[in-house]
Amino acid sequence: TAAPDLTGRHVVVSAGGTREPLDPVRYLGNRSSGKQGYALARAAAARGARVTLVEANTGIPDPAGVDVVHVGTAVQLREAVLKAVSDADAVVMAAAVADFRPAVYATGKIKKKDDGGAPTVELVRNPDILAEISADRALPGQVVVGFAAETDDVLAHGREKLRRKGCDLLVVNEVGERKTFGSEENEAVVLASDGAETPVPYGPKEALAETVWDLVVPRLRATT
Ligand code: C5P
């Protein structure tokens, strides 16, 4: 059994992928399964934390002993995360949040045009939740962790993203055939704002989850 090193702590984890509706039957989505976020939530609960899991479109049953908030869109995920982090010791943003959403939501199904043409979908930016919670820490010493899926120059892009987002830890994984999206396995490097870089070999998402908490625990603010 895990050491109860998150006892008395409240941690917030986001998981899954947001869906941005175009009309009542269509959305823009992504391939996130939510498995890594659920592994993080279960691991934190096993280590004694009170866990709030903000879940988007995973279809995974609620884990025992975890408070689950179900959301659909990036805007809803932001609301739920901002509410949950107000008293959180740590936040892990494992969800794949859509960077853009359709500028307008069509209340009726978008129809094919008689002239054979196709509609143009205009997109607008979604708020960057990770950057926002990193910049405006709800509590002093709150530990903020992000994820980044990259396809090339993984470390260089990861280091740049860690700085840009302003988080304490960034889990950088390479998107590949047998890992990351939908897979049971992952391989990553965890970059820390203090310069530490922790490689995590190819293995189950549960193992990466434990490594993330191992790196969060020593960075938590002291309790009185
Ligand atoms: O910029 P990119 O999408 O690669 O960053 C990924 C990280 O940022 C993840 O931790 C994700 O949860 C978070 N994110 C966010 N809000 C967005 C986009 C990404 O919090 N709009």
Automatic annotation (TrEMBL):
Function of the molecule? Catalyzes two sequential steps in the biosynthesis of coenzyme A. In the first step cysteine is conjugated to 4'-phosphopantothenate to form 4-phosphopantothenoylcysteine. In the second step the latter compound is decarboxylated to form 4'-phosphopantotheine. Catalyzes two steps in the biosynthesis of coenzyme A. In the first step cysteine is conjugated to 4'-phosphopantothenate to form 4-phosphopantothenoylcysteine, in the latter compound is decarboxylated to form 4'-phosphopantotheine.
Reactions it catalyzes: (R)-4'-phosphopantothenate + L-cysteine + CTP = N-[(R)-4-phosphopantothenoyl]-L-cysteine + CMP + diphosphate + H(+); N-[(R)-4-phosphopantothenoyl]-L-cysteine + H(+) = (R)-4'-phosphopantetheine + CO2
Tell me its family: In the N-terminal section; belongs to the HFCD (homo-oligomeric flavin containing Cys decarboxylase) superfamily. In the C-terminal section; belongs to the PPC synthetase family.
What cellular-component terms does GO give this entry?
Answer: phosphopantothenoylcysteine decarboxylase complex
Q: Which gene encodes it?
A: coaBC
Cofactor detail note: Binds 1 FMN per subunit.
Cofactors? Mg(2+); FMN
Q: Name one GO molecular function term.
A: phosphopantothenate--cysteine ligase activity
Q: What is its EC number?
A: 4.1.1.36, 6.3.2.5
Segments carrying the region annotation (Phosphopantothenate--cysteine ligase) are: 11-224
Could you say which residues bind CTP here? D99, K109, P127, D128, I129, L130, F147, K161, K165
Please name the GO terms of the biological process aspect recorded for this protein, alphabetically: coenzyme A biosynthetic process; pantothenate catabolic process
Q: Which UniProt keywords apply?
A: Decarboxylase, Flavoprotein, FMN, Ligase, Lyase, Magnesium, Metal-binding, Multifunctional enzyme
Q: In this protein, which residues make up the domain named DNA/pantothenate metabolism flavoprotein C-terminal?
A: 6-216
Pathway field? Cofactor biosynthesis; coenzyme A biosynthesis; CoA from (R)-pantothenate: step 2/5; Cofactor biosynthesis; coenzyme A biosynthesis; CoA from (R)-pantothenate: step 3/5
**Under what name is this protein listed?**
Coenzyme A biosynthesis bifunctional protein CoaBC
Domain of life of the native organism: Bacteria
Identify the species of origin: Streptomyces venezuelae (strain ATCC 10712 / CBS 650.69 / DSM 40230 / JCM 4526 / NBRC 13096 / PD 04745)
